[in-house]
Amino acid sequence: MTRNRTSYWKIALIGSLILVGSGASYLIFHKAPSTSACYHATATILPYVPERDQEQVVDLFHRDWYWLSVNEYSREHVLFMVNTGSPNEVESNYFGKMKVRILRERNGAFVGFVTYYMKNFHQGHILFLAIHPDYRGKRYADCLIRYALDDLKAEGAQEVLLLTYTPNTGAIKLYKRFGFVETHRDGKFVFFKYKL
Questions:
Q1: For residue 163, what pLDDT band results from cuts at 50, 70 and 90?
Q2: Secondary structure letter of residue 137 according to DSSP
Q3: What's the pLDDT score for residue 73?
Q4: Count of C-beta atoms within a 10 Å radius of residue 16
Q5: Number of H helices, E strands in the chain
Q6: Are strands 159-165 and 123-131 parallel, antiparallel or unpaired?
Q7: Nearest CA to 130 among 161, 98, 168?
């Protein structure tokens, strides 16, 4: 009888250790990125807050509209996307699913933003990535891309898609350097995929 109890407790202890180890592994490998996932010591990535971020995001969209969208610039369109978390007004299945993350210096200076969402259960999409001209060429875009990839992976993405205009050679170099693979071109756009 005592021997059976000892065996029972050993099995229970081993089972508990396995569960704790599994839980710890899940937290390590599936954890969403922290707000400070940027390697720049003076920068922080934050969730979009309209009262704090809206005007700077809209201004950067307006400045870089040609590189960010195929449509004519519309302030209302930008406000709809960032304030509702929706990649556009027509695909209602994505309404509220797009994340907008803001990169700021610790002194509060606006650096840029990234938007991304899950297209389906295994595929993420980075829709917009923009860095203020004062901060370009300093690898701030890397921080936003890494953050988006980590967050999409935590949501279950196995691959991430994005595209950019064919003449946007700076963005093309950035994505290739980061590990995105060009899948095809259609004359106007270069399409990329990143395997997680």
A1: very high
A2: T
A3: 86
A4: 10
A5: 6, 7
A6: parallel
A7: 168
Residue 128 main-chain phi, psi, to 5 deg: -130, 140
Alpha-carbon distance values, 43 to 40, 151, 167, 185 (Å): 5, 18, 29, 34
How much of the chain is in helix, strand and coil states, percent to nearest 5?
Answer: 45, 25, 30
What's the CA gap between 2 and 19, in Å, rounded? 26
Taking the C-alpha atoms of residue 85 and residue 48, their distance in angstroms, rounded to an integer, is 10
Q: How confident is the model at residue 167 (pLDDT cuts 50, 70, 90)?
A: very high
Q: Tokens 């969208």: give the residue.
A: 69
Domain 33-195 architecture = 3-Layer(aba) Sandwich (3.40)
DSSP assignment letter at 81? H
- Report helix, strand or coil for 87: coil
Q: 């071109």: which residue's tokens?
A: 185
Phi-psi region at 86: left, alpha or beta (left = phi > 0; alpha = psi -120 to 50): beta
Distance CA 54, CA 65 (A): 16
- 120 - beta bridge partners? 123
Q: Residue 34: what are its φ and ψ, rounded to 5°? A: -80, 170
